[in-house]
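REQUEST FORM: STRUCTURE PREDICTION
Request ID: SP-0412
Submitted by: Lab K.M.
Chain count: 1
Length (residues): 413
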Amino acid sequence: MKYFSLFTLLLVVTASAAELRVSTDFEGGSAKVESIDQSARVIRFIPGGDPQRGWACWWYLRVDGAAKDERVMLSLAGSDRPSRNNGQDTGKPLAASWAMPTRATFSTDGKTWRHTAPGKREGERMLYEVTGTGGPLWIAWGPPFTPRDTDALLAEAEKKLPAAKLFELARTRGSRPVRGLHVNAATTPKPSGIWVQARQHAWESGSCWVARGFTEWLVSDDADAKWLRGHAEIFIVPIMDVDNAATGNGGKEAAPRDHNRDWDDKPVYPEVAAAQQRLRALAKEDRLAVFLDLHNPGPGDLKPFFFTGPPELLTEIGRANRENFLDAARARIAGPFALDPKPHLTGPTYHPLWKQISGQWVNAHGNPHTMAACLETSWNTPYSTTEGYRTVGRQLGQAVADFQRGKVAQSRE
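STATUS: Completed
RESULT:
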């Protein structure tokens, strides 16, 4: 009788467990569910992006039905669809490591993001464990940042600083707005122009959080931020590839062009053309001082680093300004992320279309003194969290202020 009672109780508990459900029908959502084992509470899935719209490494899903304190396992495999590289179809899938962070990111409210415990690699799959709260769970490759998050960030910046104004850079090919923040509080004549943009590759969500950290610092009461606002006109675009960020596609190496290989005389993307137009205008006024493009690198790059172009293509003052800026960045970006002191070179051996990368376009069309660089902030470390990224953004802002202050001091000597 006792055995029968325990068996009956087990059946009742099993039968009462809610069905696990997965959805991706929201901004930035992306996953292809292979199967859900309701009894073992295991969800098997792969990234859901279309390889023609970029590397299929981004994934972001919502799980419903997990009871409070119930453990749910997510079993991830790499995409099985042929990928693109160097502007061409490769005929084989992207390496799974791009889709498999050591720690996934999760949220119980869709707003506050934390790391899971380190996943466990089993053959060609990565297993992540999450614990239910009785409500929905959001799990993603990294901390999501959607166009709605851009709108919220810019609205908050406008509230904090009267000189900060939202602007629309362009409408995408999908007719979505690409929005940015324009801060024009300079009290000096002919203020330096500073342009910061992020996420030309949609899967690189961490770059948006770096941009958010920069933005929050810029509109704050920090003394360095106040000084920079008084000496420069600043533009920040948190998401360049809005279409793919909204639809949950990877963006990198998308057809017909990678966003960051579109910087030539006939860009495919309206937002690239619009950025070029504004940068040309600053250069025409001889005040394009700093251009920064924010990205995330490969899974094995555990320190942030800068990509810079061949120094021989710069003027003497351009080379000096780049070194001075890098010195400032090395001093400021020191923890918890420690910047790799040696920049990586963008040149002929890096990519066949290297001259069509944003920083190289700016070097070719900017002023002799313009400093252009790409910051790659690591995504596969314990520090690759919303707070870690925002800290890098704040430190990057301080480095820009240090660099600009040094230039002002030199001009007075």
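NOTES: The chain has two domains: 18-140, 147-412.
Reviewed by: T.R.
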